[in-house]
Amino acid sequence: MIKILKKDLDLESVLFSGQCFRVSKKDDGFIVIMHDRVIFIKEEIKYLFVESSNENNLEKIIINFFDLNRDYESINNDLAKKDLIIKDIICKCKGFKILNQNSFEMFISYIISQNNNIKRISNIIEKLSKNYGKKVIFKNNTYYLFPEKKELYKLSEEKLNDLGLGYRSKYIISALNTLQNEKYYLEEIKKISTKDALIKLMKINGIGLKVASCILLFGFGRLDVYPIDTWVKQTISKFYNIKSDYNSIKNFTKNIFGDYCGLAIQYLYHTGRNLK
DNA sequence: CACCAGGCAAGCC
DNA sequence: GGCTTGCATGGT
Known about the structure:
By secondary structure, the protein is of the alpha+beta class.
């Protein structure tokens, strides 16, 4: 068990905000299946308490996962200057963070997410992990980590269909083929600009602007993206009284929020979907 | 039953 | 180029 200063982190709010698919409540805290370990985490007023199936480098990994070293106060102050609506929303979203999750896991998970709901996305990822991921025993329970690349490379479209992926199976196959053919694909994404990374990701059959944005936001820490889904469209349209079609929303958010578009949209998503 | 979910590609014009 | 339509599945 380790103890970490939690600063202003709102743990529950962040974990259940829809960016993480592998979290559940347990006793007075939460179980999170991270990419290489399972953790039990709970919060008190000043501290996070964390137990893990793998204690190696734990403090550093938790601080990075919850993005605790980023200066949100400064970013939020900048965003709050844009207009009174976002200022009020940021105030309500105090303690919200963008999690730093594993790139490969986000790459696959957000392809699964399209035209799908969070509960069903979680179920599919759970089944995928149970069938092809590493088994971990932690605090007398059994968990399964998200599968390694090499395990998923073996899969056929039929096997994916068995998990309930529907038409997304062929998208996963095409994404995995790209990774196999281009050994340093994800490393390359990490190096290039957000704009180029969006273009590169969107060359894959099954990845559009929304999925590419989520992969970059949650898997690569890029805050300057446009993860616009149905919730975001509704919320922005309502709060700002503008048209709810995709391009109106995208251009509007891009113009106002600039380099922190992804974070601002996330605040709006969180407000529209979770704070009602 | 219809409609929806962290959308997308393909097929029209 | 932009706009419309079909899509797998499970929940409400």
